[in-house]
Amino acid sequence: MNDERAAEQEVDMNTLLAEVLDAHGGLDRWNALTLVRATIVSGGDMFVIKGMPQDPTPREMTVWLHEQRASVTPFGAPDQKTDFTADRISIEKLDGRVVAERDQPRKSFRGHVLSTPWDPLDRAYFNGYALWTYLTTPFLLAMPGFTLTEIEPWREADELWRGLRATFPPGIAGHSTRQDFYFGPDHLLRRHDYHVDVAGGFAAAQYVYDMVEADGIRLPTRRRAYRRAADNRPVLDQTMVSIDVSNARFT
């Protein structure tokens, strides 16, 4: 590819990202905010496979927007919460007393396959990085260290969804280093593809639905993740992860 063509593609990709960010509320609005709190209900077969089936109890998720930090309450007991960063996960009492903790938690998943059981700290770590990613998408793509490439669009029914492939920087925990985000003609998020490295690396396609606006930011309130077949189509006969979001508040 010659330099002129590469520059054209970079400009086009940057234009797409700018349009995506504007459609979700705009970078100026995002940068004026610090936190998002939301009620979540999660489930799906992956947690059953991991020996951590989810009950339908609503939980309060708190995500920091400009650093990778998150917490969910309750966790494991009514008076407990989690404290997640990329290099540490802990389960704590509401007054801050530590119940269990693990430094460099990603290392604990080495050698895991999909059927490898998780312990509560594994589950807490997954919850932390996954919900941080979901509740900061697509604005995390504009953070320092992320590199983006526009990829082939995905056709879903009568819509063509443009795609951005993101390479995550080393200091940000995620499902996998490379993840793909697809946006509809309105530039709103439709689908998110990745490999779940902490669960044996299976390929996933996550579809998002029911956009709402909260404090000037638009976000989906339903997420459904499926295994992804070799042709990139979702395997719809098994929901691996489901997440319903409500009462989102940005401050």
Structure write-up:
This protein is an alpha+beta fold and 251 residues long. Helix content is 19%, strand content 45%. It has four helices and 13 strands. Strands 6-5-4-3-2-1-13-12-11-10-9-8-7 form a 13-stranded antiparallel beta sheet.
Question: How are the elements arranged and paired?
Answer:
Layout lengths: L2 H21 L3 H5 L3 E9 L1 H5 L9 E6 L4 E5 L6 E6 L2 E6 L4 E6 L16 H17 L10 E10 L2 E9 L10 E6 L5 E8 L5 E13 L2 E12 L5 E17 L1
Antiparallel strand pairs: 1-2, 1-13, 2-3, 3-4, 4-5, 5-6, 7-8, 8-9, 9-10, 10-11, 11-12, 12-13
Overall 3D geometry?
Answer: globular
| Strand order in the largest sheet | 6-5-4-3-2-1-13-12-11-10-9-8-7
Q: Total number of β-strand segments?
A: 13
Q: What share of residues is helical?
A: 10-25%
Distance between the termini: 44 Å
* Radius of gyration computed on alpha carbons: 18 Å
Task: Output the keywords.
251 residues; 13 strands; globular
In short:
The chain has a 13-stranded antiparallel sheet with strand order 6-5-4-3-2-1-13-12-11-10-9-8-7.
